[in-house]
Design goal:
The protein is mostly helical and 328 residues long. Helices cover 76% and strands 0% of the residues. The protein is built from 13 helices and no strands.
């Protein structure tokens, strides 16, 4: 498995380089930050200041050279210059990354637990009222646009706070922009309160599709020969479900979870924007609005690494969930 992991990482490197190069060309040609700099400031900067700004962001260099300087700089910890003065892109990226990871990790954990519970429950009670109920709500959440559901929950949170006279459900950003360490109980509950609504938004949208995969996979496993044999041996139903059926049924869920990480990150951008979280979503929106090439590329590069890493993790989980799978 170690050799397989190394091979996958080595194969991912040229894929990452090729994809980031293509995206870099698109981002570079998406707008003119120098023109934005010249027209967005009052009074209008002098031509010398405009030329200095162009040199600062390497706007006068060929795109291929700019990409090479950027990618080699990243390897040395230099993420390139930003159009915002005195902004360290690397520090800004990883600080915001912690905020987004908190949201995404909580949402994925809740979605996975709910998907396994309701997916298995629906499969065991196939074609019953309980199965139809789970299916109805699954398709309902699956059809909901993330932005609409987020706005709906935000309004519900505002109403809840007004009715109860509390501010537990945070509906506008975090109290602390970058999750500074604070051990007080009030600060802890404040963070949890601000985490509730955006987490529910991402979790329920993901849970809906994952439940359908779990149900379908569980039904297939329950009708397999080895499960019938386990039942014929007289094993308890709980033992058959948990130790024999569920483990195999989780393999498709592991696959779809890894593949959906890109969708979840995209949903996090919308969710963070609506709830005004100071995470990677806000960073991407700001970077695109100001045509901040290197800051946008920093977000895209880190997101690509996360997606590739989750796909590798899914492949490795196959061998853990199914002992029959081996990587030579």
């Amino acid at each position: 498995m170690l050799a397989y992991t190394v091979r996958r990482i080595l194969v991912s490197i040229p894929v990452l380089i090729a994809s980031t190069f293509i995206v870099f060309l698109v981002v570079v040609n998406a707008g003119d930050p120098v023109a934005n700099f010249a027209t967005s400031r009052q009074p209008r900067p002098s031509q010398a200041a405009i030329n200095a700004f162009a040199r600062h962001i390497h706007a006068n260099e060929p795109a291929v050279q700019r990409y090479w300087n950027w990618i080699t700089g990243v390897l040395h910890g230099d993420w390139g210059p930003s159009v915002q003065p005195n902004l360290d892109i690397g520090h800004d990226l990883f600080t915001r990354f912690r905020v987004t990871v908190t949201l995404v990790a909580a949402a994925m954990l809740i979605a996975l637990v709910l998907a396994v519970i309701f997916g298995v429950f629906s499969a065991i009670r196939q074609y019953t009222a309980a199965d139809y109920t789970v299916t109805f709500f699954g398709f309902l959440f699956l059809a909901m646009p993330v932005f609409w559901f987020a706005v709906l929950l935000k309004q519900a949170g505002i109403w809840f706070n007004e009715q109860t006279g509390s501010q537990f459900l945070g509906t506008i950003g975090e109290k602390s922009p970058y999750l500074e360490v604070d051990t007080t109980w009030n600060e802890f509950t404040d963070r949890i309160g601000h985490l509730v609504l955006p987490t529910i938004t991402l979790a329920l949208v993901s849970f809906a599709s994952w439940t359908r995969y779990t149900r379908a996979s569980m039904l297939e496993v329950l009708n397999s020969d080895y499960v019938r044999l386990a039942r014929a041996k007289g094993l308890r139903r709980r033992t058959v479900m948990v130790r024999h059926a569920l483990r195999t049924a989780l393999i498709p869920l592991a696959t779809v979870t890894a593949l959906d990480i890109a969708i979840i990150l995209g949903g996090a951008v919308i969710t963070e924007t609506i709830f005004q979280w100071h995470g990677m979503g806000e960073m991407l929106v700001e970077s695109a609005a100001t045509v901040d090439v290197y800051r946008t590329m920093a977000w895209l590069l880190l997101s690509a690494v996360v997606v590739i890493g989750f796909n590798l993790l899914a492949d490795l989980l196959y061998a853990v969930l199914d002992p029959r799978i081996r990587y030579d």
